[in-house]
Design brief:
The structure is a homodimer.
Chain A (H helix, E strand, L loop, with lengths): L17 H11 L10 H5 L11 H4 L2 E2 L2 H6 L6 H9 L8 E3 L4 H14 L2 E5 L18 E5 L6 E5 L4 E5 L4 H9 L3 E2 L12 H7 L6 H4 L2 H4 E8 L2 E5 L12 H4 L8 E8 L1 E2 L3 E9 L2 H13 L6 E5 L1 H10 L3 H13 L7 E9 L1 H17 L3 E2 L3 H8 L4 H10 L2 E11 H17 L8 E7 L6 E11 L4 H20 L19 H20 L13
Parallel strand pairs in A: 2-4, 3-4
Antiparallel strand pairs in A: 1-2, 5-6, 6-10, 7-11, 8-9, 8-10, 12-14, 12-15, 13-14, 13-17, 16-18, 17-18
Helix pairs in contact in A: 5-19, 12-15, 18-19
Chain lengths: ~525, ~525
């Protein structure tokens, strides 16, 4: 069953190898775990619901404390601390489980009539507070779209598939694979996040280099709004005015509930493999990455770890003897201390993969890259969705872990990633606490790339102190990002946590346009308040 | 000098080979040309201007009849007939030539104060009535951005170039080529159309398969609006809410005047070549095209002519002896009557081109394609921007020519292109007139493609009769397109001519969103009235 207070399936635990433990202790000291609240104790704190659905809606709606607890929070570190402490603050008044567009329309009508805030809920994997109810005096109904999870239509000629918006990653892929297709959208949250959530929050997957971001995959669909049904027909491309799809993408529940998503799919590839190259230093590694993408080499994924992430990953990999041999070999070939690990994937026809691999190896070699084959790449592929489980293992050891991500143009990548790392590394210094910080670049464009920084710090003596540590790091670094040409999010959306920083990025007139869009569809501000726009 | 009443440079004329003449006469009869108005006679019909700029604006503004004539119309067939008959109907009251953002802001302030309609003017190449003034009782100022035509900034690391919005295609490319870069945006209007116009109307170029549509190339920029300056910062990608860039793309002058455009550029390729393959019939040719694009073969352009376009192109090519030899060869190889011509381009590194060519030839061969090398491809490349000049040659012979274009999903391509061709071919039957109709597919996506249909008919005994013939064909076929899953435009925008059909495509709520966007930036409806939204 799904873990009620953390990530993923509760029967699955990722073990932390002993060297990992030692490594972290050497960096930031030994952690002292805090005590976790129990589901029962949290359920006991859930207040009486303010909603009485009445006979027509009763079958759709669950007002039980457990359902309300399970839909109150996402996966941000603040959410995690709330779930672990039991100090939730606000719960939705009820959870609805619609099975059809008609059900959703009924819920919208009820919300409009009774002035109820509606929060659309896909996989509940937001790390930016998208699905958290706010305490504004209005009753809250969370709408879980999990029952709308079917492949509804498949056009194999046009390669378009229609899904219920609540379909999670594994069900998207398994239903497509049965017909020989893939969507190719693999965010780290793949196991739980849904196709509707991807659209609502402008998600990007690990293989976006081949398949594109959700913006490129989203072909059309259906959105139930308070003004009626918004239908987005599919066209391969159009110059007929502003693109309504692009107003739905990233709308985060503010203009309506996405119920059906049409996506562009691809035949399953003949071949796919993942390869690892080590570079002697950051400069050569970053330059090689930029050259690879600006050269339009047909890669399907690319990830570049900085020296500290490379060191951390090798330390946490287990198999110290094998890793030791690898490091001695790399050192002989020029990639010693300060080395950076690049992982890249090739996907497609045999010919395409063969040539992409040759081209990639040749560019890497020109920048002193040492190619090590597919062994570490296979490991990356095997563990690509399991990283969120690591949070649980670290938590048990008394460590809190979170990530910050942005994207910026190439000329600013070093500057911005340096600022972010320093801000996080120094952020708790006056508390005599160290933060362990490392970064990778993971989504590449000719213009620039995403910067994904992980930071680990010891939990405080109390939940309040731990939350204060996180807030300080998150706030100062988020400000720094938007003030230094970074987007407040490359792949996680705005939610409530990033909303304060959005105006710097969009500007006064950009915010005017977004507010006007929300207001057009939802003049009474019923849908997902405080999300996207404060 | 630029032709005042047609396309391009007035010293350049495309000769129609004799066989072309005979071919058309056999299809639709011999034409009887109409008499053209002179520039002098048209200037004499221009009414007194309703605008008095005053000393501060005087230097920016030209109220001369000739300037007003030269900015009154675009390049639609209706525009063409107006220019040839001299029956313009409406002229702008003046033409402004700003050199800076500050100039543009002054013009906006004046327009707001005096309630003057502003029309942004790039290259004046619209084929959908974007820049035509309307007769609504309000004075009209056309703002020609032609002086803002410089490369303002070049970031070679991030591969982003900043241009003044009025920079035309050749000046975009020449300024970039001097630094070893290309934008790669080559619409047929390349010679005259501008980078700001491409953004405003969501243009697509002939090599969009490699470089993307203008949506993918447009990285940010500056738009002067009545509410202030809208600055779009550059990010490689972002999930931070709805994308304001996508509201500017296709805004057609309704939310402001685009003054600076930042675009994603590419290093000049090592190699580029264009190749031609003939297929025995439409079915094999269309299937091969779909396979090529769904296979992600790295082509830079792809164009597929149907049997009638293939026949017409070969007839109009001149060199009847060479063409005869080619046709006999093709016939022996199985591509006789009904054959369809595919042109494709490969662009990039030598390795990429070699492999793309191998892959393309292999897919074509599997669908009975007969590869003929680069000779006809070179011809296509040499003439790629000269086709609009053909209109002049045909006009002199008494023929009117126009095109209609759309895009639709693969499962609907044959249905919709058949409907369009029949509608045009039969449209003047009750007048005992034939229309010569042929089609190519020219922009390819995994999901579908564009359909580009050319139609030629004899001019009537009068301009009024000729306009009536065109209106009948345009209206009935446009209705048919939007009612049969086609977009009203894949690459030419909405303007005034397509505005009546937009609501079918966008739906009631889509139109609500677009209207609300226009209204947010321009509550008094001062900018480019009747364009995009009626």
């Amino acid at each position: 069953m799904r873990r009620w207070n953390g990530w993923g399936d509760e029967t699955f635990n990722l073990a932390m190898p002993e060297q990992g433990h030692d490594f972290l202790a050497s960096k930031i000291g030994t952690g002292r775990p805090l005590t976790n609240a129990t589901l029962e104790s949290v359920c006991a704190t859930v207040p009486e619901t303010r909603l009485t659905p009445g006979p027509e809606l009763d079958a759709l709606i669950d007002t039980s404390p457990e359902a309300r607890v399970r839909h109150a929070r996402g996966q941000s570190l603040a959410d995690w601390l709330a779930m672990r402490s039991g100090d939730y603050g606000v719960f939705p008044d009820a959870v609805a489980y619609p099975s059809s567009n008609q059900d959703v329309r009924k819920l919208l009508a009820w919300a409009a009539e009774q002035k109820i805030n509606l929060i659309p809920y896909g996989g509940g994997t937001s790390v930016a507070g998208h699905i958290n109810p706010v305490d504004n005096g209005t009753p809250v109904l969370t709408v879980d779209l999990g029952k709308m999870n079917r492949l509804m239509d498949l056009d194999t000629d046009s390669q378009i598939a229609t899904f219920g918006a609540g379909t999670p990653g594994p069900l998207v892929e398994s239903q497509l694979r049965a017909h020989g297709f893939t969507l190719g959208h693999f965010p780290q949250s793949f196991e739980l996040s849904t196709i509707g959530g991807w659209v609502a929050s402008r998600s990007s997957g690990q293989q976006s280099l081949r398949y594109g971001r959700i913006e490129q995959l989203f072909a059309g669909g259906r959105i139930e709004t308070l003004q009626g049904t918004l239908t987005l027909p599919t066209f391969p491309a159009s110059s007929a005015g502003p693109d309504i799809r692009e107003m739905v993408l990233g709308s985060e529940g503010r203009i309506g509930l996405i119920t059906e998503v049409k996506v562009r799919i691809t035949r399953l590839p003949e071949h796919e493999s993942f390869h690892v190259v080590f570079f002697p230093d950051w400069e050569t590694a970053r330059t090689a990455s930029r050259k690879l993408v600006q050269n339009r080499t047909q890669l399907s994924m690319l990830r570049l770890s900085n020296a500290m992430e490379t060191e951390t990953q090798l330390a946490l990999a287990g198999h110290p003897r094998l890793i030791g041999m690898l490091e001695r070999y790399l050192s002989l070939r020029g990639a010693g201390t300060g080395k950076c690990m690049m992982t890249f994937g090739v996907t497609g026809s045999h010919r395409q993969c063969r040539n992409a691999l040759l081209e990639a190896r040749s560019i890497c070699k020109a920048h002193k890259g040492v190619y090590t084959g597919t062994r570490l790449g296979d490991k990356w592929a095997a563990k690509r969705f399991s990283m969120p489980y690591l949070r649980e293992a670290l938590w048990q050891m008394g460590y809190a872990v979170d990530t910050l991500e942005t994207a910026t143009d190439w000329d600013n990548v070093d500057n911005l990633s340096g600022l972010i790392e320093t801000s996080l590394r120094e952020g708790l210094k006056d508390k005599q606490e160290n933060t362990h910080v490392f970064t990778h670049l993971s989504h590449f464009y000719s213009q620039g790339c995403s910067i994904y920084t992980t930071y680990v710090f010891r939990v405080g003596d109390s939940y309040d102190e731990t939350l204060a540590r996180w807030q300080r790091l998150k706030t100062s670094t988020s400000e720094l990002i938007v003030n230094n040409r970074g987007t407040i999010s490359h792949q996680h959306g705005v939610g409530k946590d990033h909303a304060p920083y959005l105006p710097v990025e969009k500007g006064e007139l950009g915010m005017l346009a977004i507010r006007s869009l929300c207001n057009t569809f939802d003049p009474d501000a019923i849908l997902n308040p405080k999300t996207l726009v404060e």
